[in-house]
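Run log // design_07
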């Protein structure tokens, strides 16, 4: 049997190698984790705006039918309220006259994707093409290029938000959902919105649901009496020198 004799020098080399291995095992994963976290930092769209002004953005998603658009426009005019309509490109193609009517009334016409597909199933190139397709359709009717985007189903991810930013647009969500899409009653919607509304809130409605017009009428009446005014989302948000906190609230940076 051969005997292996470890010299003093060899022992030192072995000890250094073991120490190096231990340090690598301990430190490298943490370093890798930090780098990964920085690279994969989650982007967030705008859910609301921090402001001292008693202003609220009323928004409507238009992706399917067109049953109550005229009634909603009459209610908005009655309360001297401006709103933001997020259209899919397909909706614009089906109802160009209504898009023009909405724009002519002073409301904001914005992007809600072209075909209302789930974004997680789309590549960056497909998302970009989809956004541009809807932009082109809206601009062709209104002569105004959209500056805001809302993802279908309220979905978003870093890939989408990166494409939105690259097109010099702002991604908009909401902090108060009327839940009209759940066919809530008028009273349920009125309470849910008026009890939670505050400066800088962004409200979500849809343009093709039975109880929405009556709920909007009552909500506008109550909030107007409380001193709120209703502006388009593109006028509510900040365009520069801002950050978005983890809750999705857009805030001005301190100078």
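design_07 sequence
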């Amino acid at each position: 049997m051969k005997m292996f004799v470890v010299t003093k020098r060899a022992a030192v080399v072995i000890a250094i190698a073991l120490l190096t291995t231990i340090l690598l095992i301990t430190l490298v994963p943490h370093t890798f984790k930090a780098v990964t976290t920085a690279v994969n930092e989650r982007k967030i769209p705008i859910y609301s705006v921090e402001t001292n002004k008693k202003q609220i953005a009323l928004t409507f998603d238009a992706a399917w039918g067109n049953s109550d658009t005229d009634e909603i426009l009459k209610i908005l005019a009655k309360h001297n309220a401006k709103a933001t309509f997020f259209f899919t490109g397909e909706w614009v193609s089906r109802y160009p006259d209504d898009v023009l009517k909405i724009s002519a009334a002073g409301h904001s016409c914005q992007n809600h994707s072209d075909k209302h597909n789930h974004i997680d199933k789309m590549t960056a190139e497909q998302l970009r093409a989809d956004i541009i397709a809807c932009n082109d359709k809206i601009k062709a009717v209104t002569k105004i290029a959209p500056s805001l985007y809302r993802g279908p189903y309220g979905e978003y991810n870093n890939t989408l938000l990166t494409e939105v930013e690259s097109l010099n647009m702002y991604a908009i969500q909401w902090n108060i959902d009327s839940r009209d899409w759940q066919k809530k009653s008028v009273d349920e919607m009125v309470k849910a919105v008026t009890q939670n509304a505050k400066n800088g809130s962004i409200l979500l409605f849809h343009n093709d649901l039975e109880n929405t017009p009556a709920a909007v009428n009552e909500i506008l009446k109550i909030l107007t009496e409380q001193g709120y005014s209703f502006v388009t989302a593109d006028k509510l948000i900040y365009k520069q020198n801002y950050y978005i906190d983890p809750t999705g609230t857009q805030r001005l940076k301190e100078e």
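The CA atoms of residues 81 and 198 lie 16 Å apart.
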